[in-house]
Amino acid sequence: SQQGEEDPQALSIQEGENATMNCSYKTSINNLQWYRQNSGRGLVHLILIRSNEREKHSGRLRVTLDTSKKSSSLLITASRAADTASYFCATGPVGATNKLIFGTGTLLAVQP
Amino acid sequence: GAVVSQHPSWVICKSGTSVKIECRSLDFQATTMFWYRQFPKQSLMLMATSNEGSKATYEQGVEKDKFLINHASLTLSTLTVTSAHPEDSSFYICSARARSSYNEQFFGPGTRLTVL
Predict the structure, then answer these.
(1) What are B72-108's pLDDT values in tens digits?
(2) What is the pLDDT of residues B20-64, one digit of tens each?
(3) Pairwise CB contact (< 8 Å): B103 & A31
């Protein structure tokens, strides 16, 4: 399977703390994206990082990409209860630019 | 902008019946639409990719005669689950990619299908 893996599977933190999620993938990529999904809902696009980029910021989000290790991390700073959701990384493989291959996801619970 | 809707949001049907799910891009033209399936507490699995006016491309292991996809216009794609069985019960999510988009996909809210 080409599916990526995320780590940890579940994470519980207190409001105000930082949350870090990691994603490992298997194939060469053009880009990597992070999405958020609230329970039973669709996905919301958070951030896209291209294969020639190493770090990207968007508000309280910071994404890093290490193509040599085929891994990425998502950092959410100063977490809020509203950040509680599942977070998925998704890769756009080389040679299949239309596709997204989703990771297994991290369930984040932010306790108020 | 970039809103994608799905209809219905949930559906319950009897085994053997067919169910149609619509996916619409409301404020942009979607050159490509994607259909995913998600089982409880699992990730999204791509089922098929559809381009407007052409036949859908199905992922390995997905039966094209069971999951009929039609992408008749730049704003509408439909997924029909034919002769549904309880094992087809799942959360079906569509996404759409705009012509101008690098590789960002905009997702619909999903359709919960329960087959009795």
Answers:
(1) 888 999 999 999 999 999 999 999 988 776 677 899 9
(2) 999 999 988 888 999 999 988 888 999 999 988 788 999 999 999
(3) yes
CA distance to B11, B30, B52, B81, B105, per residue, from A97 (Å)? 32, 15, 17, 27, 12
Nearest to A23 by CA among A5, A3, A49: A5
Nearest chain A residue (CA) to B110: A42
Question: Do A42 and B93 make contact, defined as CB atoms within 8 angstroms?
Answer: yes
Chain B nearest C-alpha distance from A99 (Å)? 8
- B102 vs A99: CB contact, 8 Å cut-off? no
Across the interface, of A30, A45, A98, the residue whose CB is closest to B32 is A98
Residue A54 neighbours by CB distance under 10 Å: 11
| Residue (of A55, A57, A75) closest to A66 by Cα position | A55
Length of chain A: 112
φ and ψ at residue A7, rounded to 5 degrees: -150, 130
Local structure of B67: helix, strand or coil: strand
Q: How far is CA B2 from CA A10, A42, B106, in A?
A: 30, 14, 7
Q: Please name the residue of chain B whose CA is at the shortest distance from the CA of residue A6.
A: B43
